[in-house]
Input
Amino acid sequence: MTTSAKAPPQASSASEFIRGIGPLAAISLVVGSMIGSGIFIVSADIGRQVSPWGPGALLLVWLITGAMTVTGALAYAELAAMMPKAGGQYVFLREGLSPAAGFLYGWTLFTVIQTGTIAAVAVAFARFLGVLVPSITPEVFFGLGSFAMPGGGPVQLGLSPQRLVAVAMVVFLTAVNIRGVTLGATIQTVFTIAKVGALAALILLPLTVFRNPAVASANFENFWGTGDWTLAVVPILGAAMVGSLFASDAWNNVTFTAAEVRNPTRNLPLALGVGTGVVSLLYVITNVSYLNILPFWGDPNGTDVLSRGLQYATQDRVGTAAVEVMLGGAGAAVMAVAILVSTFGCNNGLILAGPRVYYAMARDKLFFGRAGQLHPTYRTPVFGLIAQAVWTSVLCLSGTYGELLNYVVFAALIFYLLTTVALFRLRRLRPDLPRPVKAFGYPVIPALYIAALAFLLVVLLASPQQRTYSALGLAIVAAGVPVYLVWRRSRV
Output
C-alpha cells in the first residue's frame, strides 16, 4: 500500500504546474537567489565611495539596504498570499495598477533584469573557475564585431573561454530546470545550504581564530571617519547603495513560482520574511568580519593584501582578500570554490523563476503563445526557459552584462515602488479579496518604503556617477511602451 504523503507532488491537469516547492525549498529560493557573488565583491566599491566617513558608513549602507529589503518583502507578503499565481510580481502589477504596468515589468525583466543578472552571475562563475583552471581566460579569440554602449566603453562581441563557460552554465541549468521544478528546487536547497555554510565560515573565522586586533582596533577606533556627517552625506550614501541593492536583489523571484509552492498562502510569506531577514543579517555581519581582518582604508598601489585594504582589494575581491589573510596563498583557491558554489546556486534559482513570468504574460497574450504552454510530462514552461537562455547567452557573448545591470537599477527600483503602490490601491479597490497575511505595519511601514524608494530614485538621477545609467534604465522601460501597444493590438 502507498500513502498520499509519500507520493510525488502532482498537477491536477496537464495544463497546470506541479506544486513541488515546499517551505524549505521556498526559503532556499529566496536565500539562494539573493546570495551570488555580490557580497564578496561590492563592499570595495562602497568603501571607496564613502571613504571619508569610514567603516561606519559602509555598515550603514548595508543596514539601510537590509532594512529596505525586508520591508519590501513584508509588503509583498500580503500580495503573494492574496494572489498566489504564476508570475508573482507581474500579476501584482497587472491587478493592482494595469495590464500595461505588468507588461512593462515583464518586458524589462526579460530584456535586462533577469537575463542580465543571470549573465553577470554566469560570467562571475567563469571568472572564478579561471582561478582554478588558468586556461579559462577573458581574452576574445573570435571576434564578432564591436559597438559602443551609451554611458560605457566599447563592447566587443565575440567568443572567449570565460564567455563560453558562462554560456555552458546557462545551458546546463536551463536543461536541468526543464526536467521539472522538483529537481530544480532540490538543487536550489542543496546549494543554498552549502553557500550559507561557506558564508558562515567567512563570518566566524575572522571574528574568532583569525581576528587581527590591530586592524580591528584601527577600524573601529575611527569608525565614523573624518567626513562631515551632515545632510550632504545622504546622496553619497544613496549612490553607494547601488552595489548593496544588487547584492540583495532577486528576493521577489519566489513570487514568480507561486503556482508551484505548496500551501502558498503560508509558505510564500514565510519564505519572503525569513529569507530576506537571514540574508540581510548575514550581509551586515559579513562586513563586520571584513573589518576585523582587513584595514578599511588602503593604498591602490599597495603590494600586499593588508596594504591594499578593503577599499582596494585586487579586482574588488574583498572575500578573497579576507581568506588570503587567513590561509595565505591557498586563500584564492578556497574562495574561488566558495563563489563557484554560490553563483551556481544563485543562477539555478534565477533561471527557474523567470520563465514563470513569461508564462503568465503569454496566458494574457502579451508574450509568445508557446511560452504559455507547459511540457506535458515535466509541467515546466520550456519555451520560456529556452528563450531566456538564448537571450542570456547573447548578453554573455556581448560582454554588456555589467553595464546592463547598471542601466537597470533605476528601473528595478521603480517596479518595487509601483508594486507597493499596487498594495495600497488593491486595499482600496478590492477590500473583498482574502488576505491571509497583512503587510507589516500597514500603512505606515509600506508608505515609508515607498518614500525611501522615491528618494533613492531622485538621488540616482542626480548622482553624476549614476545619472546616465538611471536615464538609460528608464529608457529600457519606456521602450516597452510601443511594444505593448503593438502586442495589444495584435491580440484583438
Observations:
- The longest strand covers residues 142-148.
- Residues 1-8 have pLDDT under 50 and may be disordered.
- Residues 99-132 form the longest helix (34 residues).
